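Trying the structure run again after the queue cleared.
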Amino acid sequence: MSGHSKWHSIKHKKAAVDAKRGKLFNKLARQVEVAARSGGPDLNMNIRLRGAVQTARDANMPNDKIEKAIAKGSGQIEGVTYEEIVYEAYGPDGVALMIDVLTDNKNRTVGEIRHILTKHGGHLGEGGSVAWNFSQKGVISVPVEGNEEDRVLEAVLDAGAQDMATEGENFEVTTDPKDFMAVRDALSSAGIEVAHAELTRVPGSTVELDENAARKILKLMDAIEDHDDVQNVSGNFDISDETLGTLKDEG
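Done. Tokens:
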């Protein structure tokens, strides 16, 4: 879990920068549109939409943008139809990657993703080549500071969380996707701040990376995540705290 947790933390900090330039809001709007199209515009009846809207609100996305995305997805106003695709790939040093995209042109997207992978020493894999090592999970980060571990643990376990671990400055809670919103709501009801929450893919086993390999894979992950069509990218790697500290010092 620790390799995923470190990327999860890095990605969360990067999202704050993306939000300032609008990139994150564009990605979140797509998620809201697709959720509304798949299950309708009623948040009470469409759990997927409710989760997408909550994620958008967590990122301080303006309400008018959220409402516009719901209207596009539900057909109330004209919008683009996005296709959901999952690419399986390998990065440098054999790191397995799962890349979730929403695209209106899959031929363009696969070509661009392939180019990014090749540029950074990776390549696309066959269907099923790496998916076996990943499970869909809800991941919720709660700041350690200001929160008692027992209180957080009690709230999330009662709501159906599978696990909770301390990862750096956060308690990281994992859930089954179907229990994600229930756990998120339980924390809110208990008055416990959530730093970040998302549905993502978590590897069952990881490979330890040295400093050079970690530097390469993080550059690749960042490049993939920066693509407009990419909604999520997960890898089965682990990086020691010492190595991660060195990389942070490098900027």
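The first helix runs from residue 2 to 20. Worth checking whether this holds up in the mutant runs.
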